[in-house]
Each structure stands twice: as structure tokens, then as C-alpha cells.
Amino acid sequence: MQRWTKPRAAAQQIGILLFDGFSNHCLANTVEPLRAANTLARHSLYEWRFLTCAADPVSSSSGLQVHPHGTLAEAAGDMLMVMPSYGFRQLGTWPVQTALRAAARRFGVLAGMDTGSWLLAEAGLLDGYRATIHWEELTGFSERFPDVLARRERFVIDRRRITCSGAMAAFDLVLHLIGRDHGQALAVEVSQLFMARGSARSHAGGAGPGSIGVNRALAVMQDNLEEPLPVAEVARQAGRTQKALETRMRAELGATPAQVYRRLRLNLARKLVTETDMAVAEIALRSGYADASAMTRAFRLEFGCSPRALRAS
Question: Which stretch is the leader sequence (predicted)?
Fold first, then answer.
């Protein structure tokens, strides 16, 4: 059976550079999906550190104070996310530009979140790259930095540069990265955990026709876990033929509708095992299995242990 995540690899190391006035909405929409991916995968796919240019704490625009794990000068990793949000025009000082240019040699990828694109551009780190920024600033951004190929998109990935247009787009971006790096089905699980059906949008911000059908099918499945429907009926309610749904799900999620449906039911079983004291037989019924033994076999195959072993741990 196809797994929903790629083979285990070292956790990606992410630095999140914060400034006074950062948006904690943007920060939460960046970090919480990463945390959820770790939880669902049951091991660390991502590790992150909060950084500042100095060692001092910073406060968000709404007063949330964050004590950094370290300074930018001492940090290195796979990705640096630059997150200034408000007051960004006053932050592009020569020391900040110098620090960012130095960090570009220590981090594999640089990401400008919200208005972080402006600081990267001030440092000359977006010249020749496609990039976006919060759309309220896009006109000024394109005028100020003519060597940057400004785009009105939710997020843009261009080689070793990522730019994102705002807090809600940050959630979409992180879902995209999770799906790209660890399988689209894990991104779907994270999205559903946050009750954000259909959130994994394209770079331009709109889901393609196939994605709409897949999202509808996922919604039908989610609404019918206790009494599973035949795949043909799922496809009908999603407005697709069974063959079309099979093709789109294989392309987007790397699994058949039957495999996806089974995983959603087993996810529910895992949640009930860990969060309730229901008997295994009752959990089996709630997750669409008439036979507790069949559910246990499927559970062990998917998660590597029995429901009772997971509960005991």
C-alpha cells in the first residue's frame, strides 16, 4: 500500500526572523501547519527557531512578545523566513541588509513572508527573481525594485527564493511545501485538521478544475466515515466520473480514492484511540468497520502498531 509520506529524512531546519511589529497571525499560519505535520507524521519533519537581529525580545503588532532562540548572525539552516509585517519600510537599514546578505550564504532558501519581500529586495536578494508581496504594497514594491519581477500572486516560488503575500497566504504556502516535500495527502490531513477544506491553492491563488473535484470528494468522504460510500457514489456526489476522480486523486494525492478514504477512516480511529476511552469495537464501528479485527489489521498496517499498543504508549 502506498504511504502518505516520503521515507523518513532529517528534519528541515527553519529560521524565522522576527521584527517588532510582526503579525502573529502570519506567524501562527506559518508555524502551526508545520507543527501539525510533525504530529501527524509522528516524527519531526520540521524544526524551527525564532530569531532576531539582536538578542532582544520582539513584540507583535498586537502585543504578543516572543523571546528569540538566538540571533540571525549565529543561525544557519535549510530555510530562513523573514517576517517583519508592519513598519517594514523603516527596517531596511544597512545593518539589516548586510545581515540578510550574510544569511543568504548560510541558508539554502530565503522566504519573504508578508512584507518580508521588501527587506529581501532592499538587500538585493530578489534581483532577477519573480516575487510577490502583500498586495497593498505591490505597486510601490514594483516601482521601488525594478529588477524584481513582481507578481500579483498569493505566493511565488522561484529557485531558492520564496515570497508570500500575507497571513492567509502563508497557510497556503506552508501546505504547499508540506505536500511538495512529504506528499500531498499529508497536506490534505493538515488542512482538514484546521478545517480548511480546499485551502491548498495554486501559486496564483485559485484551485484548478481537478482540485475542485478532489476537494469535493474529500468532503463527501469526511462526511461519510461511519458508513462509507462506494467510490462510485463519492465520485457522483463530487460531480465527477469514477475514472476521472481516480485519475485526479492519483495525480494530486499519489493514492487512489479507496486508499485516501481508508486513511481518513483510520485517522478518525487513531483520534478516538488517543483521545477517548472507547472500546476498540466501538471505535471500529465509528470509523466504518463492522469487524474490529479488520480495523485492527488495517490500523497496524497503516500506523505500525495496534490500537491497544498506541493507547498504552
Answer: none
Q: What is the pTM of this model?
A: 0.80
Q: In what helix (H) or strand (E) does residue 101 lie, and over which residues does it extend?
A: helix 94-103
Look up the CATH number of domain 260-312. 1.10.10.60
Phi–psi pair at 92, nearest 5 degrees: -80, 50
Q: What is the Cα 126 distance to its own chain's centre?
A: 23
Sign, Cα dihedral of 202, 203, 206, 209: negative
DSSP state of 53: S
Distance CA(153)–CA(171), nearest Å, equals: 14
* Topology of the domain covering 195-257: Arc Repressor Mutant, subunit A (1.10.10)
Q: Cα 264 to the chain's mean position, in Å?
A: 18
Structure confidence at residue 7 as a pLDDT band (50, 70, 90)? low
- Residue at grid coordinates 462506494: 230
In the three-class reduction of DSSP (H, G, I as helix; E, B as strand; rest coil), residue 60 is classed as strand
pLDDT in tens, 101-138: 999 999 999 999 999 999 999 999 999 999 999 999 99
**pLDDT in the model for residue 201:** 40
Select from 228, 232, 238 the least CA-distant residue to 268.
Answer: 228
Residue 252 grid cell = 494530486
Q: CA nearest 257: which of 299, 228, 226?
A: 228
> How many CA atoms lie within 13 Å of 288's alpha carbon, on the beta-carbon side?
21
* Sheet arrangement for strand 70-71: 70-71, 46-52, 12-18, 77-83, 107-112, 161-164, 155-158
Domain residue spans in the chain?
12-176, 195-257, 260-312
Q: What is the spatial distance between Cα 88 and Cα 65, in angstroms, rounded to a whole number? A: 18
